[in-house]
Every structure is written in C-alpha cells, then in structure tokens.
What does this fold into?
Amino acid sequence: MGSLLNQRAVVTGGSRGIGRAIVEALLAEGAIVTLCGRTEASTATALAELAHPRAHGIAADVSAEADVARLFAFAEERMGGVDILVASAGIGLFQAAGDMEIADWKRTIDINLTGVFLCSRLAIQSMRKTGGGFIVHLSSLAGRNPFAGGAAYNASKFGLNGMGEAMMLDHRNEDIRVTTIMPGSVDTDFSPRSSGKPSEWKIAASDVAAMVIAVLSMPARTLVSRVEMRPSRPQK
Ligand SMILES: NC(=O)c1ccc[n+]([C@@H]2O[C@H](COP(=O)([O-])OP(=O)(O)OC[C@H]3O[C@@H](n4cnc5c(N)ncnc54)[C@H](OP(=O)(O)O)[C@@H]3O)[C@@H](O)[C@H]2O)c1
It folds into this structure.
C-alpha cells in the first residue's frame, strides 16, 4: 500500500463537512494539505481550528476560473506541487423544475460540475510534471437515482459521474487515477431539509474520509474508479 506521508493534497470544500473530515484524515496520514472554502471566513475558521503546520488554505469559488487559478498557484507556492486533488465543494439547491430560478440551475451546474472540471484540469497539468497522482470527485448516489426536486442537483451529479469516468479513461495511462465517490445521506449541514432531525443513521463524514484514504492507499497497479456508499439502515 502507498504511503501518504508528504503527499501534497488540494481539498476543495475543505472548510466544512465531508471535505473537512477528509482534510483531517489526510493530515493524520502525514500529507500536506491546501484547503479552500468559498468564503474567507469559513476558510480562516477551518485553518484556525485545525491549527496544523501542514495545513494551508485560501478562499476560492471553484466556479470562477480566476479563483481556481489562484488556488492552484497558491498550492504550488506553498507545497511545491499537487499529488492529490479531492473535489468536495458542492451545493444542493432543491426545487421542482418548473419553479426553479435559472440562476439556481446555473449556480448548481457551475459549482458541482464546471467547478470540478476547472480544478481537475489544473490538477492534471500539475500532476503531469511529477508523473502522476490521484483525483477524487465527491459525487453522490443522486448521480444515479433521480428524485423529485433534484433536477439541477441530479443533473450536476449525473454529469459529474460521466465526466469523471471519461477523465479516468483520458489520464489513467499517465498514472493519474480518477475516482468517483457516490455517498448517500451524510451527516453534515449540507441539506437544510435534514437540519434539526436525528441523524445517527446517516453515513458520518469521517466514514467518507476513511474511504478516500483507502482509495489513495491503493498500490500503483490498482485504480478504484467508482465507490457507492449508503446508510446501512436508511430512515426518512
Ligand atoms: N451531505 C450529504 O448528504 C452528501 C451526500 C452525497 C454527496 N455529497 C456531496 O459531498 C460534497 C460535500 O458535501 P458536504 O455535505 O460536505 O457539504 P457542506 O457541509 O455544505 O460543505 C460544503 C463545502 O463546500 C464549500 N463550497 C460550497 N460552494 C463552494 C464554491 N462555490 N467554491 C468553493 N467551495 C464551495 C463550502 O465552503 P464554505 O464553508 O465557504 O461555505 C464547504 O466547505 C458535495 O459535493 C455534495 O454534493 C453530500
């Protein structure tokens, strides 16, 4: 199994939720991490709470090309390169298609799909310089199971699954291994629909982080292309 000691990781959406749990797991494995949240405040809070010498961070909106360029320039400057990208930044705006504002549709696609593409593209360009790396996309079971109110979110995650698989085929022979992780309900602040309700039955963010570490620890001969995770006993 490969070691993650001194591996250089960029984690988008690393300020909160699943991304934050992944940042903590990577640091525990000895990796160096650059995280981004969307806002200065959440990014600064995460860095202060982590208080870790190997944790760096900068706010970046992954849907903005200039912000993504700034994020990777910062990662390059702080870490000297990128071996791992975990793209966890994402939003969920749920509305029946006929009632959805066009701006909400665009925002969902721009962040959940185009944002992952923009980050992956620069990560690949950086990884080519050192001969390989890992790219992990946080998709969702919503990328295969449509639900009412999910038109924009489902579209973004179905799209992400297709893009991730194509990217995996594009770059596997350059030793860049692309993995799509598709969790069901995870216990974070992601969905306002679930706030305030009991959530012990949900997947913990740390469980997703453990899966990411397992994927990143595979020997060079093995590429985990897609992982589905779901609560053992789902509740409404
Ligand atoms: N929670 C679930 O049930 C679940 C299930 C399956 C898949 N997922 C997927 O897992 C990923 C993470 O979800 P989560 O539960 O961790 O969500 P979360 O707790 O709401 O955290 C979202 C993270 O994404 C960041 N973010 C949002 N928009 C951004 C943007 N435009 N640019 C950069 N960063 C942005 C947020 O930054 P700020 O802190 O600055 O807001 C925050 O760090 C998402 O892609 C989501 O679709 C979640």
